[in-house]
C-alpha cells in the first residue's frame, strides 16, 4: 500500500493561497464574475507582490507550512506559477473560483452601497489576507475611520496591516467582533461583509451572530453553508430544518429569504457557467448568501 503524505499547513498558508490565486482566477473567469475596474485588478497584483515580499522574510517563516513555502518559492521563481495552479493544480481551480466570485460580489455590494451612501462605515469580518477593504479604501479614497477588518489571528493582522501600509501608507483599523458589535449598536458601523468565515463558527454562535447582524447592521452580505445530506455535510453547516428555524427567528423574513434565493441562484449560475462539468457545488456543502 502506498502511504500518502499528509499535507502540512501553516497558520498563513490558506489565507496566502486565497490571495495569490485570486488574481489569476479573476482573469480566468472574467466573463462570469461581477466586473472589476482596472485599478482594482492592478491593486490586487501589487498586493500579492507585497504580500509575498513580506512573507518570504525570516520573521514570518515559522507561520508558513509546506504549502505556504511552496507557493512563495515557486511564485518567486516564476510569475506564471499561480496561473498554472488555477488552470490545473488539484483542487485549486475549484477553490479559486470560489475566491473570485466571493471577492467580486463583495466589491460589487460595497460599491453599490457606497453609491447610495458615501458615508458607509464597513467591516470585513474574517479578512485573512483579502485585499477587499484596502482596495476599497484606496480606490474610493475612504477615510480610515470608516474601514475596519476582523481576524482572530494577530499574526495575520500584522502581515495584513504591513502590506496595506506598504501599498497605501495606511491600513484599515483592526477590531474584534465584540468591538464591531459595540460600534454597530452605537451607530458607528453600518455595513458588514462576512465571506467564508461563519462556517468556521459553531452553528449556535452563527445563529446568534446572524440575529445580531440582522438587528443592527442596515447593510450586510453574509455567507453561510448549506447541505441537507447528512452523509456529506461538514461541520457548522445548515440543513433544511436549521435553515427554517433561522428564517423563523429573524425579522424581515420575506426580504431575507427572497434576497438569499436571488443571491444564491446568481452564485450557482456563475459557478456552473465557469465549471459546467463539475457537480461538486451541488453534491456537497454549498454557499447561501444573506444580504440587505
Describe the 3D structure.
The structure is a single chain. It contains 13 helices and six strands. It has helices spanning 13-20, 22-28, 38-55, 66-77, 81-88, 92-116, 132-139, 154-168, 177-185, 203-216, 240-249, 253-274, 280-283; strands at 122-125, 147-150, 173-174, 191-194, 219-226, 286-291. A six-stranded mixed beta sheet has the order 3-2-1-4-5-6. Helix 1 (13-20) runs parallel beside helix 4 (66-77). It is globular. It starts with 12 loop residues before the first helix and ends with a strand.
Can you describe this structure in just a few lines?
With 292 residues, the chain is α/β, with parallel strands linked by helices.
What is the molecular shape?
globular
Number of helices: 13
- Amount of helix: 40-55%
Number of strands: 6
Spatial order of the strands forming the largest sheet? 3-2-1-4-5-6
Rounded mean pLDDT is 85
Strand content: 5-15%
Sheet having the most strands: 6 strands, mixed
Architecture blueprint of SSEs:
Blueprint: H1 13-20, H2 22-28, H3 38-55, H4 66-77, H5 81-88, H6 92-116, E1 122-125, H7 132-139, E2 147-150, H8 154-168, E3 173-174, H9 177-185, E4 191-194, H10 203-216, E5 219-226, H11 240-249, H12 253-274, H13 280-283, E6 286-291
Parallel strand pairs: 1-2, 1-4, 2-3, 4-5
Antiparallel strand pairs: 5-6
Helix pairs in contact: 1-4, 2-5, 2-6, 3-8, 5-6
Task: State the main characteristics.
single chain; 292 residues; alpha/beta; six-stranded mixed beta sheet; 13 helices; 6 strands; 10% strand; globular; disordered N terminus
Amino acid at each position: 500500500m502506498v502511504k500518502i503524505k499528509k499535507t502540512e499547513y501553516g497558520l498563513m498558508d490558506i489565507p496566502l493561497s486565497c490571495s495569490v490565486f485570486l488574481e489569476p482566477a479573476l482573469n480566468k473567469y472574467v466573463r462570469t464574475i461581477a466586473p472589476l475596474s482596472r485599478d482594482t485588478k492592478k491593486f490586487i497584483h501589487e498586493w500579492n507582490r507585497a504580500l509575498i515580499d513580506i512573507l518570504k522574510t525570516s520573521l514570518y517563516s515559522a507561520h508558513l507550512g509546506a504549502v505556504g513555502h511552496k507557493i512563495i518559492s515557486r511564485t518567486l521563481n516564476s510569475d506564471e506559477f499561480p496561473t498554472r495552479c488555477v488552470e490545473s493544480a488539484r483542487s485549486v481551480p475549484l477553490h479559486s473560483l470560489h475566491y473570485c466570485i466571493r471577492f467580486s460580489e463583495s466589491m460589487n455590494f460595497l460599491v453599490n452601497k457606497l453609491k447610495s451612501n458615501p458615508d458607509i462605515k464597513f467591516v470585513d469580518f474574517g479578512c485573512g489576507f483579502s485585499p477587499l477593504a484596502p482596495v476599497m479604501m484606496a480606490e474610493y479614497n475612504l477615510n480610515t475611520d470608516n474601514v475596519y477588518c476582523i481576524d482572530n489571528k494577530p499574526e495575520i493582522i500584522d502581515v495584513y496591516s504591513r502590506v496595506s501600509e506598504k501599498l497605501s501608507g495606511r491600513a484599515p483599523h483592526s477590531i474584534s467582533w465584540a468591538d464591531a458589535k459595540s460600534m454597530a449598536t452605537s451607530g458607528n458601523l453600518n455595513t458588514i461583509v462576512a465571506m467564508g468565515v461563519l462556517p468556521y463558527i459553531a452553528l449556535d454562535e452563527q445563529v446568534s451572530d446572524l440575529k445580531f447582524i440582522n438587528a443592527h447592521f442596515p447593510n450586510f452580505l453574509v455567507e453561510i453553508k448549506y447541505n441537507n445530506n447528512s452523509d456529506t455535510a461538514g461541520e457548522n453547516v445548515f440543513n433544511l430544518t436549521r435553515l427554517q428555524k433561522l428564517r423563523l427567528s429573524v425579522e424581515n423574513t420575506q426580504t431575507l429569504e427572497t434576497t438569499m434565493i436571488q443571491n444564491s441562484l446568481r452564485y450557482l449560475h456563475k459557478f456552473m457557467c465557469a465549471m459546467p462539468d463539475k457537480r461538486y457545488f451541488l453534491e456537497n456543502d454549498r454557499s447561501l448568501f444573506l444580504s440587505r
